[in-house]
Specification:
237 residues; alpha+beta; Dihydrodipicolinate Reductase, domain 2; 7 helices
């Protein structure tokens, strides 16, 4: 798909729910403005009760729970969000290592794929933990960013908590909606088609970001299958 997009000069973009969260965009701005210092750890918690439990259609389930068609279960279904946002916040930097553990807690419901996964990414000065689950009692897409002088918690698409200056300032925040024209996938898609709109490098919808996302997920699957930590440069070079 990447080769064809480049050959025919077509923008290839990816749509994630979390791309349209005002909180994530606000978090990126806060990080870029150096309000909390360099990132040290990011924790993503993404998941729900399970696709059967929340009533997904049979047609969707047949694809989602197929290890070939979807590439996995909870690991790919929910691991993608953390991989995508981490790559954006880290400005396209690829991890040094990738580790992963998975479990099949509900084999009666999901006999072919894992329903629980934890991915750990290391960077030279940062660690990322991605918790992907079909076993939580409610749906969640949360992000916590811990840095040198503070932290930032995105509880959902708008509710945030910011701690600055080593704990001297802690505030609850409501993130502003995304700017009109890029506020949802349909408006964004229209802008790309009509105006050839291109965001900053490694933005969440971008081709270069999502190539890294797929590499992270493939490395995570290999790490889980082999019980080893993947060294990025050895695996992809």
């Amino acid at each position: 798909m990447i080769a064809l997009a480049k050959k025919h000069n077509i923008q290839l973009i990816t749509n994630y729910e979390t791309t349209w969260y005002g909180s994530n965009r606000e978090a990126n701005t806060i990080i870029n403005d150096k309000k909390i210092g360099d990132i040290r750890k990011i924790i993503f918690r993404t998941g729900h009760q399970g696709p059967i439990e929340i009533g997904c259609s049979q047609e969707f389930l047949e694809w989602l729970t197929d290890p070939v068609l979807n590439g996995g279960g909870a690991l790919t279904d929910f691991g993608c969000y953390g991989a995508n946002l981490a790559t954006w916040l880290m400005k396209g930097e690829t991890p040094t290592t990738v580790s992963c553990i998975t479990q099949q807690i509900k084999p009666d419901l999901y006999p072919k794929v894992e329903d629980e996964a934890t991915i750990i990414l290391t960077y030279p000065k940062t660690q990322v933990i991605i918790q992907a689950s079909w076993n939580w009692s409610f749906g969640r897409k949360e992000m916590e960013v811990y840095s040198k002088t503070g932290y930032l918690i995105c509880k959902n698409g708008e509710d945030m908590v910011l701690m600055e200056n080593e704990g001297k300032n802690i505030s609850a925040m409501k993130a502003e909606p995304l700017p009109n024209g890029i506020h949802d996938p349909f408006a964004y898609f229209t802008k790309v088609i009509k105006e050839n709109y291109i965001e900053e490098p490694f933005s969440p919808s971008s081709l270069e970001n999502n190539k890294v996302v797929m590499q992270i997920l493939e490395a995570a699957k290999y790490a889980q299958e082999t019980g080893s930590t993947v060294v990025w440069d050895n695996y992809f070079n």
